[in-house]
Amino acid sequence: MTEALQQTGLRASQLVAPPTQFFIPAAASLQERRPRTLKHGDTFAVFDHNGDVLSGPGSPEGLFHRDTRYLSHYYLTIGGERPMLLSSTLRDDNATLTCDLTNPDLYDETGRCLIAHDRIHMRRTRFLWQGTCYERLAVRNFDEAPHEITVEITFESDFADIFEVRGRVRARRGTLLLPEVDSSHVLLSYRGLDHNPRSTALRFDPAPAQLEAGKAVYRLRLAPGEARSLFIEIGCDVNGAEDPPSRLFFRALRDARRALRRSSSRAATVQSSNEIFNETMRRSVSDLYMLMTDTEEGPYPYAGVPWFSTVFGRDALITAWEMLWLDPAVARGVLLHLAANQATEFDPDTDAEPGKILHEVRYGEMAETGEVPFRRYYGSVDSTPLFVMLAGAYFERTGNRVVLETLWPHVRAALDWIETYGDRDGDGFVEYGRRSDKGLANQGWKDSHDAVFHADGTLAKGPIALCEVQGYVYAARLAASEISRELGHDGIAEEQAQKASELKSRFDAAFWDGELGTYVLALDGDKRPCRVRSSNAGHLLWTGIVPEERAETVVRALMGPSSFCGWGVRTIAAGQARYNPMSYHNGSVWPHDNALIGTGLARYGFREEAARIFEGIFSAATYIDLRRLPELFCGFPRRETQGPTFYPVACTPQAWAAGAPLLLLQACLGLRFDAEARQVIFEQPILPEFLGEVVLRNLRLDGGTIDVALRRSGTHVVADVLRRDGPVRVIVTT
Questions:
Q1: Mean of the pLDDT values across residues 107-122?
Q2: Could you give the C-alpha distances from 27 to 15, 87, 305, 458, in angstroms and in order?
Q3: I need a surface site. Which of 230, 368, 372, 631 has the fewest CB within 10 A?
Q4: Residue whose C-alpha is closest to residue 325's, from 708, 36, 725, 718
């Protein structure tokens, strides 16, 4: 994925790890907490089920803005006691979090019960909008007698950098400034070592009976059946508004919901005969649009909450690919934003090289001061070829020549990077190796420190040529050939096609291992093969670099019991050195990895196997809170009547995990587009056993939209056009 996470039982202060690996200690299991998450733009929040923030070692809870935690403690009590949880849920579109609470038995100092349990109902409704968290706390007395109750909210801000929250220990920090307090407003401020001021502004409406720098106290007298609403507004570096929070709450809620509807209305929709699958797809699409952030160049999916809520190159490129059939505007936004931030100079501290595509951007204090190298970091070996691949796929999907012309100089620069900096030793393969000890040691998608190794478990030394990266380069050259030909650069088109053909032959000779029955994981710096069975080989099928005669053997290796655990293909096959089903990259199951593998299987005609992967990933989702696929789960074998084993610090929601069902559905349906002919094509479609019918609505091509129903009929799938707007045709091949 992104910066390497490692599971460990140690506390952050006990970690003895290379500082450049940026570990996330598993001091607190996200799966155990199952937190509630909200996000808008550069702001996200992680709450417990009550809607509180109870941060501690390893806890991700809090309100975060641009990689800084602006609220580290937020705790509600009634009569001095924590309310009891009734329910806690997110709207289907992720717009709001609603927590229903009630009072426990409340006693006076003599032990007399003042209010019996379940008499006072409290409903917290909360959402994010433009750097501010809005909350309405509705309190109602359902008792037959009047009651006087005390509602107290304690709060605090530590202004911790996201890397501190993840367990990084800092030698120095900035300065907490004196709080400012009036009758209804508290301002908590901090000046960091980067000299940037940061502030958390809390406003209360109506004004509390008591307000201090870390506490607001309401004393409410409620008649039988009476309800009161309290409004709280928590702003991150926002200017004070003149309107009261009670008025702004409803205005902002309206705007937030409209914005979500507006962005998601571009997308095609999926409905099926399986209601649980429908729930899974609705959650996936809602998560994708919640993670979407508007940049100057267009929509951009941030990678995931809590640790990766920012621009990542590789993650967004793959997420945009997963969404391409559904909403190609996302690919356009990703391509244009990454083009605008393409490296133009050489900088060893950030692994930047001319033509290289971003790995990651960070805005926090530690990035600004250089304590971590991720302010604008380029340590990703695969983002650059993936960028060219997506540019070609976007044009094939949309036929948008204007965007293609805009991207052309950046495609050329990316190809130049592949030729020069990408190929460290001139052998025709693209390798990686960090330019300074500040960067990531491993720079493929499996970027934990122990993810690339030899058959005996010895870690590979660089520069390292990953197998899947060569596949990406092959596909990038083919995409560049098509782009060049479309733009009238026939000489470049022929050159790129020839280089792709040569790479395909060289790659097979250097990476194929007949004894393994698959392609090796990588070549190390001495060109010794890392003879390990891995999921990486499945990406090769996706790119098309595998010769037809090898495909079936590769598929057998991927779908055999040592690799396919029932939920999906493991990152590393059981029995290999360093195999551990609880590890981050060495035996776990990643939904996005499996989506790419499934697409590769379908590409070579193995649609039944692709459907098996789809069934495994979907079945895993049925056991997961909110039907929300996490970043990864453990690779233990699937057992009847039992769900998957969760990975403790997996991000959820995670963009490329949320997009995985979309891509797997496309793979099984054989769905592709011919923009020039205005055709929607279903090539040898199949439906997995859990789906009898799928309806795709609002499939867009330039000049029209179409709704299509696909139904299983015996051993075949038939398509019916339900609605057509414009000259769009449907083609089904068998």
A1: 94
A2: 11, 26, 17, 28
A3: 368
A4: 708
